[in-house]
Amino acid sequence: MSTKWAWFMLGSFAGSLAAVVLSGMLALLCSRSIIKWIVGRFTKRLMSNPYESNIWEVVTAMTRISPITVVENSIRAASGAVIERPFGSPRKFLHFEGLVFSPAQLSVLPTQEDVEIDMTTVIGPKAKKPLVLDIPILAAGMGYGVGLNEKVKVAIAKGTANVGTSTNTGEGGFLPEERQNAKYLIIQYNSGHWSKSPEILKQADAIEIRFGQGALAGTASVLQAADLEGRASEIMQVQGEDITVIPSRHKDISSPAELKQVVERLRQLTGGVPIGVKICASAVMEQDLEIAIQAGVDFISLDGGQAGTKGGAPILEDDFGLPTIYALSRAVRYLRKRGAKDSISLLTGGAYSQPGECLKAIALGATGVYMGTSLLWAMTHDQVKKAMPWEPPTQLAWYTGSLKERFNEEEAAVYLENFLNSCTDEMKLAISALGKRALREVNSDDMVALDAWTSHVTKVRLAYEPWDKPGTNPHG
């Protein structure tokens, strides 16, 4: 009986399997026929219909207007208001690709592999309390409440602390947990009325007086009450206000003389930590630099036109400010001309995403490099799967983000630490390949330019020009 049952079951299974296979083959044949028919109909219409009824007009239109512009114009049409684009301009400006380093081999020997490369970075060398960092990459100003949520700010503080560099409060409120977890904290003295009490400012390792930034120029920012609900409104002391405005101007700074007074007041209040200014690069940048020099600042943070932000009007991101490499090169030349290069540290920001770009900026004369957007992407790493494909990953990071509770602070801190260590180790390897032992030894003579325009902007010699100074070290 059991044998007959087994044969019956085997026959039933074989019959079912054959039916499934046959059904699949019929479906495939049918689907191929259907697909062929659909493609044929579509191709016929595509190749014969006049433009007014042909979908191909979308393709031709987008060769004149980019998909970015099409989408942004649709958002403008839907909102009727100024739109805000995150992460800065998509425009392709001249950047650092036109520069390459010259490796040491025979005339200059590479550094031996057992030599430790010194990456020490000093901000405000003439200040009473210089800010001494272990690496030259700093976290850019990204504000609590006005941009990032508490978990992200604390993760940045922890990650930067573990590698011995600084984080920056940005324009948002002073978050006590950020100070507790950060090894070095730059407090941004912004044009708002919050986070300016002596008790807060005395906790700074450096203070950055903000006048502008690459993605926003020097414009005001307006936040609705819904944007700051909860703890951020309490910290910023804007509870119950329908709108919160970060003004375009400081109430206590309307002239170069008043800037000098504020610099001196902050210096005395903090006991001598570095006091600096943050500006975006303009066509009259040297005039702004001169005012900063006259005010006696210890450092200048200079934002290039490619810098990002939580959200900026496309016209400000695309059509204002000088590209980062232009701004950096001009600023270095001016500080040298004024004899201030060794006393005033120059921090550069705007579209830095790779260690090679950072080292090239330092070779051109920067003291340190601010990174913002790249740090956010590093921290979210595989956490983006919590948002994608239905929501943008920023919903994990923004203060108003719908997924901010799913952001893992501890994982993010580790990812950030790994990212910064990886970038630093690559830079150390490059310094060894130049035959040098310290970051401060790297200079523009270690590079050549691949094109005439990059050479003209940076004053770095062209690659096809031979080194014509016998007996000298092309690596400085």
From TrEMBL:
Xref: Pfam families: Glu_synthase (PF01645)
Presence of keyword Transmembrane helix: yes
Domain Glutamate synthase: from-to ranges: 123-436
EC number(s) from the headed UniProt entry: 1.4.-.-
TM helices/strands, residue ranges: 6-29
Entries under PANTHER family matching the protein: ARCHAEAL-TYPE GLUTAMATE SYNTHASE [NADPH] (PTHR43819:SF1)
Organism: Paenibacillus ehimensis
Family (UniProt): Belongs to the glutamate synthase family.
The keyword Ribonucleoprotein is annotated on this UniProt entry: no
Keyword vocabulary terms for this entry: Membrane, Oxidoreductase, Transmembrane, Transmembrane helix
Annotated GO MF terms: oxidoreductase activity
Enzyme's top EC category: oxidoreductase
Superkingdom of the source species: Bacteria
Full protein name: FMN-binding glutamate synthase family protein
Xref: Gene3D superfamilies: Aldolase class I
